[in-house]
# Entry
Amino acid sequence: MSIFIRAYAKINWSLSVRGMRPDGYHELDMLMQRIELCDELVFERARRITLEVDGQRLPGGDRNLVTRAAQALNDALGKHMGAHITLKKRIPARAGLGGGSADCAAALLALNKLWNLRLPIKTLTQLGLRLGADVPFCLQNGLCRAQGVGEILTPMPDAPSIPLVMLTPGGGLSTPSVFRAWDACGRPSTDADIPALALALAEGDLARAQLLSHNDLETPAIQLMPEIRSWKERLRALGAPCVRMSGSGSTVFAAFNNAADARAAAAQIPGAILTRTLLETDFEEI
Ligand code: C5P
# Structure
């Protein structure tokens, strides 16, 4: 038996940092959505846990979130089950697109099935949160508000599929460095009206979405990588009504009113990724 699963990237329409917790993590208030850009994973029964990666150099062994997800399931159940896992990587790393968390969530879902564990999604979510703050969100579909460190999730009404053009300048940024830079640069914090932003997206009003969205990590990320600002300006100049950095960067995404406008803008930028947001109905059951 083998299981195929897609692990979808995410974007942050908005990200407000609300403060720091004693454990060093930051309290956030975010509006997130999964997008069509994805990694692909295949899981097969095997004696040991092994991972083969195609498309990118990634940390191997215990440092990889896919292997760690498999290990966490075994540890939680006191078992020693194995799987050969193949990961085809397309989501850029250090990009603010949640690629590692998406792979981790996909591994929890697929191994739950491959190993016939029948664990409820709540248990997978608790295990996933220990592996990465974005994993609980990656176990959900559709548009979601995420609070706490990312584990308090409130589904929002589905928005139409929105065409996106994105690029990841400078080979990406390290998430802990961006949070450290936020601490050092005066902790800029903005309140975003997340329900109003979700409504603007549901109505396809991207100009209003631009006014209502924020990303508090843009200031520190731009300090570390100034070209993020120039790419934002370039995408606005190409006619995108809504442009933001995703997560802790360095990906900058531009949302367009229609696919033709997005294609025309992407054609101007070598290496740009053309994709779209996903609707709840786009997800297949595994
Ligand atoms: O949980 P994850 O491994 O994705 O987080 C990577 C790093 O990002 C953490 O070690 C922490 O430095 C930072 N982080 C944070 N607050 C969050 C999420 C991540 O400070 N809510």
Summary: The mean pLDDT is 95. The first strand starts at residue 2 and ends at 20. Residues 2-155 form a domain with the Ribosomal Protein S5; domain 2 fold (CATH 3.30.230.10). The chain has two domains: 2-155, 163-282.
